[in-house]
Structure formats: structure tokens, C-alpha cells
Amino acid sequence: MTSPIRTPILENWFIALLLSLALGLCSLTSQQAFADEADDDTQTEEQSDDPEEDDDSDDGDDNSKGNKGKHKGNQGKNKSGDDDSDEIAKGGKPHCQKSAQYLFLACKHMTHAARWERLAECENILDRDQRSDCFTQNREFFASDRQSCRTQRNSRKGVCDEVGREVYQGWDDVRFWDDGAVIVDNDYFPLSPSSSVYVATETTIDREVTESTRKIDGVTCKLVVEEERYKSDPGADPGILLERVERLYAHDVDDNIWTCGVLRQQYGVLVEGEDPVVVSTLGSWEAGSAGAKAGIAMHAIPILGETYRRSYAPGIDEELAEVIDPISLAPGVECVGDCIVLRITSPLAPEGYRDEYYESGTGLIHSENQGGDDTLYIVQP
């Protein structure tokens, strides 16, 4: 038989529990309201897109056309874990497409990291109006960075359609000359010791093919040094050193020239009157390191219309070369022998391209960058 006293006790206990929960909820709500009121600048920033929103949801739907509209991107929604059957039917397993997607995810997360770092900077601004302007600018930067990530992804997927969806192997299974072997130069890309000077608008580039070699990923590579200098006076000598680039090339038994790696050293004057010092090595890479693979700098027999990877250092150097018809040479370019033109593009900068003119027996004679309204001419005197 149930005691007549226990039921009221249980009811009182239950009512007390409900009151405690209600008071706790009110306290949390009041604290949150106080925090929101005290931090309205941050709230303004947080009203922008959620930093954790899934950018993959719009995979391929912005129809971005990089590299003069060539690389349209994949309009499908093939995620890294989806069934590969459709992609296999299109011409091979989608390793290239998946790599493009992973690089997109890396770009996306770096974009978020940059956003949060800028948020921290904005929070440390004392003036309220300046802090608000900082948040507004941060949202604009964030939107621009996200769009850049999407554009690069679509361009990379377009590249996959051109050069193949399978794993890019670089120079795996390629035979190279043994050390000390007599090598006949590639007609369009000679690597015999020589020096040349290229002249731009305000700079000169001294290029030297040295006798030095270096082993890269087990392959003997020839060192080519380029030094770019600024000359305020055309007669000035030697000018201010802006950049030194060490390029390494290998020559296979079929006379193809491979890019082994690039070491960039950008210079700046930290103290007025002092010599320039290295301030950046951005853009440096080496085959066999951090996922980088060698690319073809010049085929022994270039084929009109062919597109191939010239370098493959993901996120650093991803150039492609297309052999185009040199029937119409750029103004001022004279070609004595046979000439070819390589159109150099990159998903890292899909809005522009560079045309390089090569003459048989000489090598590079002219290079023209075109990205928007900017054009750079480099002419060998």
C-alpha cells in the first residue's frame, strides 16, 4: 500500500527541478544577451557566411572559365568518396579530379584560417569605426579568396580533361643519359654551356647555362641560372638584383627536356644603401619532394595542338604548355630558323597566359605575358 505522504513529496521535488532549469535557462539567456550587446562589432562579422559552411556544395556550378575559357571544370558532383564508375566511363579513374578536389579543400581551409587571423587583427583595433571597417574589408577579402579557390578547382578539373585523369607519374619509368655521356642538344632547348641577355621594359635577365649538375630524385640535372636586375638607367651596370632563379633540367634518351625543379630567391633592400638580401623563396620546388613531380620543358618533336604538364608542384608551380601555331609572330619578333610557340597556362592563375617563342638551334628568343591589360616583352638582343 502506497504511503499518502510520498506523492506530495515527489510532486514538490519535480516542481523544484523545473524551477531550477527555468532559472538556469534565464541566466544563460541574459548572459548571452549581455555578450551580444557588448560585442556588436564581432556580431556584425559573424552575420556573414558561416566559416564552417560546406563550399563543396557548389562544386563545379560557377562555370568559371580559366585559361581563355579552355578549362571549364567538371560540372558533376563527384566527391572523393563517390562511385568512380561514371568517371571511368569518361576515360579513366578520376585520380586527377580527386587531387583537384583535395587541393580545393586545402585552399578553402587556408582561406578560413586567413579570415580568422584578420578577425583577430580587427578585434585589436581600438577605434570603433576603424574596427567596423576592418570587419567589412575582411568579409570582402574572404569572399574573394573563396571565389579564387573555386576558380582554381574548376581550372584544375579542366586540366584533367586535357592531360588525363589517371595518376600523373612525371618521369617515372623514363630513361636518362648516364653521367658523362655525350648528349646532343634538343634543337629548341639547348643546354650546352652558354650565356644570353633578355631585355624587358625596366629590367634585364642574364641567363647562363652552366656546366654544374645536381642530382634530383636520382636524375642528373643541368643547372641554369637567371638573374633579373632593375636598371633605372639603360646604361647602368649592373643594376639592382631583384631575383635569382636556379632552374634544373634533365635530358632523357629520347631528347626530351625535363624540368627537375626551381629555386627562387627574391631580393629586397631592407636598409637603404645596403646590398639586397633574400626576402622570399616563394615558388621554389624540387621533383620528388612534397608531392612535386618533374614536367616536360620541351619535347624533342613538338606536336601542334599538344598540351602537357610543364611542372607539377601542387599549389606552387602547375604550369601547362600547349604547342600553338607560330604563323603570326608577335610584332618585332624575327625568327631565322624554324620556330615554335608554347602557350603557358596555370590553374593557379587561370586569368592569363604566356607565349614563349623558341627558335631551332637558339632556344628562347621572345616571351610575352598576357593577363588582363598587362603585357611584358622579353627580347634577346
Give descriptors for this structure.
27% strand; globular; 6-stranded antiparallel beta sheet; 29% helix; disordered N terminus; 8-stranded antiparallel beta sheet; 381 residues; alpha+beta; 2 domains
% residues in beta strands: 25-35%
For the record, the count of structural domains works out to 2
Percent in helix:
25-40%
Counting DSSP H or I runs of 4 or more residues, the number of helices is 5
Unreliable residue runs:
1-6, 28-83, 87-91
Shape label: globular
Verbal overview:
With 381 residues, the protein is an alpha+beta fold. The protein has 2 domains: 121 residues, no CATH class; 186 residues. It contains 5 helices and 14 strands. The strands form 2 sheets. Strands 1, 2, 3, 4, 5, 6, 7 and 8 form an 8-stranded antiparallel β-sheet that branches. Strand 12 and strand 13 form a beta hairpin. It is globular and about 100 Å long.
